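Design request, tokens follow.
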């Protein structure tokens, strides 16, 4: 592969074989709710207990020792670490499975936030967070009770790191999209935003909504197609 700047975009499919459910697959409903019904500021304002329960369950699942990075996370971490030009892994996932293989790396950007952080609605302080949240949880920084929310990007909110992502997309020579349905924007628009000569590749279980926009596509489970493509 040539040494042009690399962007890898990942979605829930990269973590599916680690045991984390995708959003729009057969196990995608949570207690009968679609993600679009619980991942909005309006849902949180209307029924914070339900939204906290959704994220508490998913945060607790991440602390289960059975949930571990898989061969796709490993192949991507190696690719980013050894790429001979600037490389950025942009994940839509709020799990920490990429982080475990690239701890503290500046080359990893969580555009939809992370489950293991919480944010104060009053003072904006962001804290590492592994406990359950509730409407009674006080903010450690300002002491306000009930002001904490998951540090997650909900529908209608601005994804994180967009300036950096847009700059990287404009310079990128290889764009890999891994395990995402291509239904949620702005991530779904990245392939169209990649400029000129860049090579665009989809690696997914099945053709995504934007599959035809890619120069090439390889379909199958991430733990097979990603290591095969990368190595
Ligand atoms: C495998 C596999 C295996 C399975 N191996 N593959 C109308 C038109 C266009 C846009 C809009 C519109 N109305 C509203 C919007 C905007 C909205 C949006 O896109 N809505 C759509 C539903 C239409 N977007 C927003 O509101 C975003 N903000 C925004 O746009 O701000 C304005 C802005 C303007 C200009 C520039 C920038 C911004 C915010 C979106 C926030 C998304 N949040 C969520 C939930 C929070 C996080 C959480 O709780 O986890 O993020 S939604 C949910 O979807 C989650 C995911 O990150 C995201 C993407 O899902 P993903 O990862 O693709 O998962 P799935 O389940 O959809 O797909 C999995 C794929 O894996 C499938 O294809 C499988 O086949 C595959 N797979 N097993 C390989 N083993």
């Amino acid at each position: 592969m040539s040494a042009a700047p690399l962007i890898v975009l990942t979605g829930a499919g990269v973590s599916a074989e680690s045991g984390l459910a995708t959003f729009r697959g057969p196990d995608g409903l949570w207690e009968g709710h679609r993600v679009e019904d619980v991942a909005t500021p309006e849902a949180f304002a209307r029924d914070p207990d339900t939204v906290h329960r959704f994220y508490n369950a998913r945060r607790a699942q991440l602390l289960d020792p059975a949930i571990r990075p898989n061969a796709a996370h490993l192949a991507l971490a190696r690719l980013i670490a050894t790429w001979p030009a600037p490389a950025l892994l942009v994940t839509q996932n709020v799990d920490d499975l990429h982080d475990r293989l690239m701890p503290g790396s500046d080359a990893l950007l969580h555009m939809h936030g992370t489950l293991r952080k919480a944010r104060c609605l009053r003072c904006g302080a962001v804290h590492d967070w592994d406990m359950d949240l509730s409407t009674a949880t006080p903010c450690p920084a300002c002491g306000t009770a009930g002001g904490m929310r998951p540090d997650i990007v909900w529908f209608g909110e601005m994804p994180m790191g967009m300036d950096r992502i847009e700059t990287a997309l404009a310079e990128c020579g290889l764009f890999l999209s891994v395990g995402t349905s291509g239904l949620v924007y702005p991530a779904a628009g990245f392939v169209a935003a990649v400029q000129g000569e860049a090579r665009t590749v989809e690696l997914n279980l099945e053709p995504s909504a934007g599959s035809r926009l890619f120069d090439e596509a390889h379909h199958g489970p991430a733990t097979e197609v990603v290591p095969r493509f990368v190595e």
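Comment from the thread starter after seeing the answer: thanks! The first strand starts at residue 6 and ends at 10.
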